[in-house]
Amino acid sequence: MAVINLRNRQIECKLVFYGPGRSGKTTNLEYIHRAFKKQVTGKMISIDTEGDRTLFFDFLPLGLGKIKGCDVKVQLYTVPGQVKYKATRQLVLKGVDGIIFVADSLAVRREKNMHSLKDLHENLLKMGLSIRKIPLVLQYNKRDLEKKGLPTMSIQKMEHELNRQLKVPAFSACALSGDGVANTLTQALKLTLQSLQNEFKWAQ
Amino acid sequence: MDLGEKIKKYFKEAELYRSHGLLVDALEKYKSVEGLVKSTRTIRNQQGILKQIALKIELTSKKIQKSDGPKTTPEVAEDAQSLMKEMFSFDDPEAKGSSALGGAIALAKFGQYDKAIEELNRLLEYDSLRLDAAKNILWCWIQQNYTDYAVSLYQKWRKTKLFPPEEADSIQSYFNELMDKAGVDHEIDELESQRTVEPDSEIDDDEILDISSVRFVLPRGPKEGEKIELEISFQSGKYIRMIISRREKDLIDSINPGDLLKEIMFYSPVAIFSGEGYVSSKNEIDAGPKKGDYSLEIKIIKIVS
Q1: CA B111, chain centre distance (Å)
Q2: Which among A45, A48, A148 is the nearest to B16, CB-wise?
């Protein structure tokens, strides 16, 4: 849950990158860390990875400066994507204000995307939140792999399978090169701050 | 697409999946390649290619096994534990001391049990936090499959009347629930009556230094009379715990709960002292990387010099 201090005009909110294992959540955060140096207010922390897999979470604090008279700070987190870390995902999701769901465009990861989205839905329900109400953005990552000859799903197919009912903003991306990462993050922040405005009327 | 091209395409896919860490998908593709190569005799150096693919399959399978295998949650660095405490402590900010409790609970939920127990033990000092701290301590021990230790701790609390009756009832029902969930057959009173009555300790927890190892004479069994030295794996005040490898069968048979150890040398980083101890439990570890090894617990009852 965001911390909003209207007297000091400060907002601190939490965005979580969710998605199946190996979909590129940590890569998104690494790119943001490199590309948004001015906004990064602390070091990126990756807590204990196993090889290059996330076991706990990654954390990156950002400071967006003044928006509508408020000093806006954002905490970015990733969850571990592997199925067996469900409990950790639930813990990292606590207090979430907005979510970026990173889906893998590779055809072989189709089912993993769907299971992970279902897992997100279930975990939010357990916290009394609805996937249809929480600020959510989809990212179709690894679009570049099509050029390398790997079978990928078309955007239309991914939209149909993941976003048919949700109808949330979705972006193509290649987190490794950074393509689409900023757009995804900007849209997620916009939705999150709008949602907080509706709830707390923080903007002047 | 002719067969040769198909094989090349599948192999390239398998390699790319592997390089992206998608091991299961890579394995499937390698197997497809193997099937295709086997199905045609027109390929030059067929046996050599099959050998190479078999090696890829073997290596990928091993990697999958390694990453899927059972694991205990690793203990992370102190700064990471601080972040866990700070960022995942969801409690009532108005309640006194609640952030300390919330932080310790966050650590426990991330599987940082030793650190969580250390912090929760400190919170037992505070009236308003004691009940929640105690419940979470029991939860931590049960999560690590140290049921017997949790039982003895619970009994110790009952015996010392650490909690008023209402809180003691609350702990008992919580503990029973935990044991039910863990599938442990429990009847607390029954367990209590089966245990040898532990001798009281003459010393306060505060008086005990951090002990790194102990040396004592084995009181019975095949190694009776032999002196052994064991490293301490965990200490909570006057309770110290050691791990004995399953390979040390004679040693395991030479010490049992209820044994009184008259001459123990305690080695701490700053001093060496001697005293007496009582073997309060010996359990086979039934899960995790130390599965099959034994956990031995000694209660220090007297310090001589």
Answers
A1: 9
A2: A148
φ, ψ for residue B8, nearest 5 deg: -60, -45
Mean pLDDT of B197-213: 75
Distance between CA atoms of B106 and B83, rounded to whole angstroms? Answer: 10
Q: What is the CATH number of the domain that holds A165?
A: 3.40.50.300
User: Chain A within 8 Å of B17 (Cβ-Cβ)?
Assistant: yes
Residue A202 lies in a domain: no
Alpha carbon dihedral B138, B144, B149, B154, in 10-degree steps, equals 10
Q: Is A200 a member of any domain? A: no
- Comparing A86-90, B52-56, B192-196, which segment has the lowest mean pLDDT? B192-196
Contact residues on chain A for B181, CB-CB shorter than 8 A: none
Contact residues for B162 (Cβ-Cβ < 8 A; gap 6+): B124, B130, B134
Q: pLDDT band for B193, please (50, 70, 90 cuts).
A: very low
The total domain count for chain A is 1
List the domains of chain B with CATH numbers: 3-68 (1.20.58), 78-194 (1.25.40), 205-303 (2.40.10.220)
Distance CA B140, CA B126 (A): 19
What ipTM, to 2 d.p.?
0.75
Average pLDDT on B248-257 reads 86
The size of chain B, in residues, is 305
How many angstroms separate the CA atoms of A1 and B91, rounded? 12
Extract the tokens encoding B144.
């690590």
Q: Which domain covers residue A76, as residue numbers?
A: 3-194
**Which residues in chain B have Cβ-Cβ distances shorter than 8 Å to A87?**
109
User: What is the least distance, in Å, from the CA of A159 to any CA of chain B?
Assistant: 23
- B6 touching A, CB under 8 A? no
- B22/A108 CB distance under 8 A: yes
Is A199 within a domain?
no
Q: Does A150 map to a domain? A: yes
Structure tokens at B169: 């009832």
Q: Is the CB of B83 less than 8 angstroms away from the CB of A55?
A: no
Q: Where are the alpha helices (DSSP H) in chain B?
A: 3-19, 23-39, 46-68, 78-87, 98-109, 113-123, 127-143, 147-159, 165-181, 188-194, 249-253
